[in-house]
Sequence to fold (248 residues):
Amino acid sequence: MPVATDLNCDMGEGFPSDAAIMPFISSANIACGAHAGNPETMRQTVDLALQHGVAIGAHPGYADPDNFGRKELNLSTSEITNLVAEQIRLLQEICETAGTTLHHVKPHGALYNLAARDRSVADAIAHAVQETNPDLLLYGLSGSCSAESASAHGIRFVHEVFADRTYTHEGRLTPRADPQALVVSTEAALEQVLNMVLDGKVISTSGQTIPIKADTICIHGDGLHAVTFAKHIHHMLHENGITIKSPA
Fold:
């Protein structure tokens, strides 16, 4: 049976690599003005995605640009739902103006990681997707609380894995404060991606083999090696007979 996977990247966050990365991916997660971006950068990134036939996703995060949305904030679940829904609607409006539709939602940073382990936060995000457009796909950490919440809200979940991040023995992303958090070698990134896509496994920082489901592979657009990783992963997937396409 032919193998296919999605290759996504976080974009519209003010970094200069978007145009160089876009030709190699199938889905773009666009910052919605909270942790980064503004209506103008959102419009520009939507236009860039349309030029390359890339699926467009909302990338909502905490309204905390000083910390790039990577610090947990003490918000109630209703505040999280409203925060996420507002950002989804903003990008939906920009997509409609551009004559296209929104494809998915992927939370950003600390909000993403909190939803992966806290069911109440995951439910709040799923509720936001459900009330804005239940046909949207929800991207989240593979095998996490986010998957359970999506299912409970009747939303299709896309299990996400990472090319440029390492994993703990629990199958979670290694915290960024840890010196081992980032994958910096192209060879290591390629090996990790191939293991996840073809064999359904990833090796943790402690050397354990963790089972994992890989519907989509993420590359962070702000990473130092983002363009190199995107090019090499794109070519490696094709060389191994793996089709790159966004989830239907």
